[in-house]
Amino acid sequence: MTEEPVAKEEVQALSEGGLSDLYKLEDYWAIWLGFALIIAGLMVFLPREPQGMRESICKANAAMLAEAEAAPYRTVAWYKNHDAKQKIKATDQPFAKTIGTWLSHPHGWKWNLAEAFVLSTDKAEAKKAKAQASCDKVKAKTEAALAPAVAADAAAKAAGYKNAELNEKAKAAIAAWRDVKKDEAGPSKKVKGAKPYNQIGYLIGLCACLAIFFGVGVKAMGQPLGKFLVAFPVVFLIAMLAYAFEGQTYMKEYGIGYAAWAIIFGLIVSNTIGTPNWLKPAVQTEYYIKTGLVMLGCEILFGKILQIGIPGIFVAWVVTPIVLIVTFLFGQKVLKIPSKTLNITVSADMSVCGVSAAIATAAACKAKKEELTLAVGMSLVFTSIMMIVMPNVIKAVGMDYVLGGAWMGGTIDATGAVAAAGAFLSDRALYVAATIKMIQNVLIGVIAFGVAVYWCAKVERTENTRVSAMEIWYRFPKFVLGFIAASILMSVLYQSMGADVGHSMIDNGLIGGWSKHFRGWFFCLAFASIGLATNFRELKHYFAGGKPLILYVCGQSFNLILTLLMAYLMFFVVFKDITAKI
User: Which residues have CB under 8 Å from 112's CB, separation 6+?
Assistant: First the structure.
């Protein structure tokens, strides 16, 4: 086999457009729009710190330091000061609440769908009374658990913390108090949220703003702006209904989120009456989700990754590539899946972080939209199952919550599902699970680049072509650069502020009160578009012999086993000192 230079025509085709690509290509528009929102968020939140924030943080830190120096464990006073510090949030300020009202999705409801959008004063009062009763019960349990914790803590202190038995009793009592206290957040949030509202006007305004926001890029990319603006409200309506059904009491309990509902509603349209041609200009799956992925970069903070350290990196960065490669080879060598693009998209979806990785990988290997839909669909189904089953299994077998959190963080696909599953166990499990998932999310760009290189150098290489930097650049999904840049920017800001100020201003300010809202809406619009663009008849032949399902089940089973083994080895054998500090 001889290798010949890339044809001049190919180089010209790959490079034509030059600077015009920066305003004509979808990937670049995802970056420009994402960063426009990030910069706007910084301008809104950073100059407006909560009053007395820094003084309160300094006071709490001084008290916590004094307790840490005096006692060999985290005392009741240490935790109370920690909790006081954690309550300082930029999102609690009036301007942030106003922003939240405009960006929030439909509210929760049980039997009456209308309550997702409108709640009268009488119903709000009744809802508040019920929520308050539940909140009072939880607080009573917390107070009941606090009393023995205070007593045990005082006994250990009276002995000068020199009695090992008293110290252990205090630690156990305080841990029991903290385990009960974590249940306060839900009922307390329901009490605060039990206010009369009419969300319809705000949703209409948000729809108009997002239509114009995305319409700028649509126009610049040479697509018909008028047709997009006419069709966009329908896609938004489906996304809005998806959020509403996510908020239904039982759907929330079973973990059926907006992503699943958006795809379902879209599929109902596309597989019954069919998606009309006039609606298709707004069915922009990749445009929406790529912009959302740039926003997701804001949530990947390297400072937090370092808090878990080497054990977390081993669980996320060693296991994930192994599972990806093994699953891909299993699909090719054993199952003999005809489509390599389907194989790698499903493998990345299952091994890395679900939908986000699937989108980036599909872009890198130029997978068909039907293949991406199939991968995303399976991911959503298994994510819903795993987020419910795994916490219950962990509790049933008495697994350490740090180990359980690491296990879930490395295997459950969606970030939101990981957080929900971790919160079901404990604060420690939530912290470990969410951080492991954050570390794993960093691999989105790495995997996309690796797939782009492999596809150019191996899969699509012929006797008359050779891999070149231009080919790889052409293949590489450019929006990943925006994802990485957003992550670096937020990480630098977070580190410059310090963990405490960063928690208040970045975690519970720019991210919690701004980027997460937009990212959620963008993802929901993308899922609605996936449903609208998918017809079951087009997917039928991909399920031949059930191979994609077998691939996912076998790959996820391997992922579960390997992640659990690695998490135990790293957190409880090699780096036990790090685990003890969590």
Answer: none
